[in-house]
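Record type: monomer structure entry
Structure origin: computed from sequence
Chain ID: A
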Amino acid sequence: MPTTPPQTARAPRTAATANDPRWVRSRERLHAAVLELARTAPAASITGTALASAASVHRSTIYEHGTDPADVLRSALRAELDEIRERLIDPATPDTIVEAIARSADEVFAHIERHSPVYVRELAAGTSGLGPMLAEHFARSVALLIEHGALTPPRIDDDPARFAETVAAASAATTVAVITDWLRDPEPRDRELLQRRWGAVQPPWWPKA
C-alpha cells in the first residue's frame, strides 16, 4: 500500500486556493470519486492511487485537499453538511429560525440517508473519523444557534460561554447517537422516523416547529 505523505505535505486551504478554478475542479472530482468509492469499500482500504485514478487527477493532488483518502471523504461529507447550515441557518432571522432548524434537520437527515452505505459501515465500525466529524459539525451548529439567541439553554452556576460549549457538545453527541442507532434499522429505513426520534430526545427548551 502506498505510504501516505506526512500532514505537512498538505497545502493549507486559503481564500486564494478556494477561489482557484483548478483547485475547485480537483476538489469536486475528488469528492465525487471518494464518495462513490466509499459506497462499496471501507475508506481505510481506498488507496491514493485508486482515488487519483477515479478522480482523474494526479496522485499528488490528493494531498492538496486532505492527508489521505479518508480525510478527503470527511471533507466531502462535511462540505455537504456545511452547505446546508450556510444556506438555511446562517441567514435565518428570529422570525424564521424555528422553521430553518426544522428544514436544516430534514436536509441533514436526507444527506445521511443518501450516503447511508458509507455511514452504516464507518459509524458502526468507528472508523474514518465520521463520528467525530458529525459531532463537530452539529456542535458548531448548536453553538451558532445559542450565540444568536435561537436556542436558550437553562442558566446554571457556570461560565456562560463554557456551558454553551457543554450544551453544544452534548446535543451533538445525542444527534450522532440517534443517527447511528437509526442506521441499524433494516432497509428501507424511514427517514421521517429518524426525524421523530431526534425530535423526541431534544430537551424541553429546544424550539418546536
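Annotation 1: The radius of gyration is 18 Å.
Annotation 2: The CA atoms of residues 102 and 162 lie 26 Å apart.
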